[in-house]
Design a protein that fits this description.
Blueprint (H helix, E strand, L loop, with lengths): L14 H25 L2 H52 L3 H18 L2 H12 L7 H54 L14 H26 L4 H32 L6 H34 L5 H10 L14 E2 L15 E17 L2 E10 L6 E7 L13 E10 L9 E5 L4 H4 L4 H8 L13 E3 L9
Parallel strand pairs: 1-2, 4-6
Antiparallel strand pairs: 2-3, 2-5, 3-4, 5-6, 5-7
Helix pairs in contact: 1-2, 1-5, 2-5, 3-4, 5-7, 5-8, 6-7, 6-8, 7-8
Length: about 475
C-alpha cells in the first residue's frame, strides 16, 4: 500500500492562517470604530464606515467560498474513508506477503498520525474490521472548520451592524457641525437676530422620511416572516434578505443628515409648537431608523448563514421559529398621557403609562431602596412646562445614549411616595423589556433578542426611544 494514498486531504485547505488573519482584521476594525467614536473624529469615522461595509461583504464571501470548498473536501474524506474501510476488510482476509507489507505500512501511518500507540492500534483494528473513521485529523478538520465558520458568520453580522452605526453617527454629527459652521460664518459677517437663525421649519421632510423608513422596515420583516411560514426556497429567502439590505441602506445617510440638521436647528426655534412637532418627527425618524438597523442586521445574519455548509439544517431551524410564534411584538405600551395630566389622572400607583418630552438634568443618584445607583432625569412637556421625574433603576441611561436636550418617549410605571421623589410627588419607573420571556410567543421579539449579540434595539432592556445625541458645538 502506498503511503501517499493516506494523505489527509484536509491539508489542501490552509484553514487556520486565513481565518485568523481575517478575524483579526475584523477585531481591529471594531476597535478602531470604538476609538474614532470616543474621540469624535467624525470624518474619519465616516470613511471607516466604508471599510466596515467592505469587510462585511468579504466575510460573507469567505463563508460561502469556504463552504463550497468544505463540502467538496467533506465528500472526498467520506469517499476516502469508505474506500479504505472496504480495503481494510479485504486486507484482513488476505494472507500473502504483499498483504502483510500493506498492513505494516498502514500501522506505521496510523502510529505517525495519532502519535499514540494505543490509539493507533485501536484505529488499525477498526479499519481492518471496516468500521469507524480512518484519521483523527480528518475529524479535527470538520471540528475546526465548523468553529471557524461560526466565527466568520458572527463576525460578519457584527461588522455589518457597526458599518451602519458608524455611518449614522458620523453623518449625524457632521451635518450638525456643517450647519453650526455656516451660521458662525454668517455671524462674523453681520449681526443677525434670533429670527434670522437658520431653522428647519418645514417639518414635512422628517415626517415623510419617518413614514418611508417605517413602511420599508415593516414590509421587510413581514416578507421574511411570510417566507418562513410558506416554506419558501432557501435561495429565494437569501435573495430577499440581500434585497432588504439594498433597500434599507440608503435611509442611513438620509436619516442621519436630516436628524443632525433638525436637532441642531430646533435649538433656535422659539415657537414651541413648531419645536415640539420637529422633535416628535425627529424621534419618529430615530426610532424607525433603529428598527431598520435591526432589520438589516437580521438580513445580514440570513445572508451569512445561507452561505454556510449546513444551509438546509440552519434554514430548517429558522422555519421552526415561526411555527408557534405570532408576528407582532408583545412589548407592552402604557396608556398615553400628557405630563401635565399625570397628577390629576385616575391612575393608581403601578399603572403603566406612556409619556414623552424633553430630557433635562440627567444624572446618577444613590438609590436607597434597594441600595444601588439609578439614573434620574426630568422629562419636560415643552408646551405646558410640566415636569415629571423619571427613574431607571440600576442603569446608566447616559451610557445608553440618552442626553440632556434630547427628546424621549418611554413606557413606565407610575410611582407615588417613593424615596427618590419629592413629598407628595409622582414619578415614572422606566419599564424593562423582558425579551427572554416575550420571545417565546413573538417572532419579532425573538429576532430582537437573538440579534442583541450584534445590535441592541433596547439598550439594557429599557422600554424607551430617544433622539440621538450630537457632539457639543462651539465649546
Amino acid at each position: 500500500m502506498e503511503r501517499s494514498s493516506l494523505l489527509p486531504i484536509y491539508q489542501l485547505l490552509d484553514i487556520e492562517e486565513s481565518v485568523d488573519g481575517l478575524l483579526k482584521k475584523a477585531s481591529d476594525a471594531a476597535n478602531r470604530y470604538e476609538t474614532l467614536f470616543r474621540q469624535g473624529k467624525w470624518p474619519a469615522l465616516k470613511m471607516h464606515a466604508e471599510v466596515l461595509a467592505d469587510l462585511e461583504m468579504r466575510l460573507h464571501r469567505e463563508v460561502a467560498e469556504r463552504a463550497s470548498i468544505g463540502n467538496v473536501l467533506r465528500d472526498l474524506l467520506s469517499e476516502r474513508d469508505a474506500g479504505l474501510r472496504s480495503i481494510g476488510r479485504k486486507l484482513r482476509e488476505i494472507d500473502t506477503p504483499e498483504a502483510d507489507s500493506d498492513r505494516k505500512a498502514l500501522m506505521e501511518a496510523l502510529t505517525e498520525n495519532y502519535a499514540d500507540a494505543d490509539k493507533a492500534v485501536a484505529a488499525y483494528e477498526n479499519i481492518l474490521n471496516g468500521i469507524g473513521s480512518v484519521f483523527e485529523r480528518g475529524n479535527n478538520f470538520a471540528r475546526i472548520f465548523n468553529i471557524h465558520e461560526e466565527q466568520l458568520i458572527s463576525s460578519s453580522v457584527f461588522i455589518g451592524a457597526l458599518s451602519v452605526l458608524a455611518r449614522l453617527t458620523s453623518i449625524l454629527n457632521l451635518s450638525a457641525e456643517k450647519l453650526f459652521t455656516y451660521e458662525q460664518k454668517l455671524k462674523e459677517n453681520q449681526d443677525i437676530s434670533s429670527e434670522d437663525r437658520i431653522r428647519a421649519v418645514d417639518n414635512s421632510v422628517l415626517t415623510n422620511l419617518a413614514e418611508n423608513i417605517k413602511e420599508e422596515t415593516k414590509t421587510g420583516f413581514e416578507i421574511l416572516y411570510t417566507m418562513l411560514t410558506k416554506d419558501a426556497d432557501v435561495r429565494e429567502f437569501r435573495a430577499a434578505a440581500s434585497n432588504i439590505i439594498t433597500n434599507v441602506s440608503p435611509f442611513t445617510g438620509l436619516s442621519a443628515k436630516w436628524l443632525g440638521t433638525y436637532l441642531y436647528a430646533t435649538n433656535g426655534t422659539e415657537d414651541l409648537s413648531v419645536r415640539v412637532e420637529m422633535l416628535k418627527s425627529a424621534l419618529a425618524v430615530a426610532e424607525w431608523q433603529n428598527r431598520a438597523v435591526l432589520l438589516r442586521t437580521y438580513a445580514s445574519f440570513i445572508v451569512a448563514n445561507t452561505g454556510s455548509r449546513d444551509i438546509n439544517r440552519w434554514y430548517s431551524h429558522e422555519k421552526k421559529r415561526v411555527e408557534k410564534r405570532r408576528f407582532e411584538s408583545l412589548i407592552p405600551t402604557g396608556v398615553y398621557m400628557e405630563i401635565d395630566k399625570l397628577s390629576n389622572s385616575s391612575l393608581y400607583d403601578g399603572d403603566m403609562v406612556q409619556i414623552e418630552g424633553l430630557v433635562q438634568n440627567l444624572r446618577i443618584m444613590d438609590d436607597p431602596q434597594p441600595p444601588k445607583f439609578s439614573s434620574i432625569f426630568e422629562l419636560t412637556d415643552l408646551k405646558s412646562g410640566s415636569i415629571v421625574k423619571i427613574r431607571a433603576h440600576m442603569f446608566s441611561l447616559a451610557a445608553n445614549g440618552l442626553c440632556n436636550g434630547g427628546y424621549c418617549r418611554l413606557n413606565g410605571f407610575l410611582r407615588k411616595n417613593e424615596s427618590w421623589l419629592d413629598p407628595d410627588g409622582i414619578g415614572i419607573d422606566v419599564d424593562r423589556v423582558s425579551l427572554s420571556v416575550l420571545r417565546s410567543d413573538s417572532w419579532m421579539d425573538d429576532i430582537t433578542y437573538r440579534m442583541k449579540e450584534y445590535y441592541t434595539l433596547y439598550l439594557n432592556e429599557m422600554n424607551l426611544f430617544n433622539t440621538p445625541c450630537i457632539s457639543k458645538l462651539g465649546d
